[in-house]
Amino acid sequence: MEPKEAVREKYAAIARGMRGESRSGCCGDAAGCCDPISANLYDAAQSGEVPEEALRASLGCGNPTALAELRAGETVLDLGSGAGIDVLLSARRVAPGGKAYGLDMTDEMLALARENQRRAGLENVEFLKGEMEQIPLPDASVDVIVSNCVVNLSADKDRVLREAFRVLKPGGRFAVADVVIRGEMPEPVLQSMLLWVGCVAGALRDEEYRSKLTAAGFREVCIEPTRVYDLEQARAFLAQDGIDVDTVAPELEGKLMSAFIRARKPDGIEASERQ
User: What domain range is 232 assigned to?
Assistant: First the structure.
């Protein structure tokens, strides 16, 4: 199965499971195998701003809306918006006058997100069906792009970053949470489709992420670690997939981290100077 179809199938199943009151981490396992990644991302104040269902369905690895410096009147796009928690939080922060879009390719997640929007009573929100490799928005139409542990799931990250650059306005900001690795990833992890769907095997090395953003046209790239996972946490990522944990986990210690990744699209003056 291709990575994109594996992701679509897995997250559709997660959305269906949410309606049955299961709680998932980013790997989609109701047992919470990825809790080191997705636990305790939102503080009490933010938790109170969204429906409980949206909070319970959080599948991310960070809290981009807390770090993105959103302003009233701005337009925000969340890539891979899932059940909608980051879209709803963004919509409150850009009001009045702003708007938050959520983009997801999974019908089941979109239905869950729209139900959470209804519960939240927010009108400055729109959920779009589509893929982040081909964003269904015009050029230069958004001020800020956020995303939460989703870019790493794409098999064509260069295209995702080019699309992000395209839809941002001049001076627009890229502000995403993602799983990033330092050094080389063990081969058994790279070969695991389940771990790809679960936010690990598709992750970029930090310097690779930086170079891809620069190649797409971004400037002021910054990668800020928010959580670095230790040996026991690495075991939680691996035990689910029949991998020899005792052999592979020590090779992962300190290499896996959640990070906040910032970059900026040059404004018109900067772009003309570069030419």
Answer: 3-266
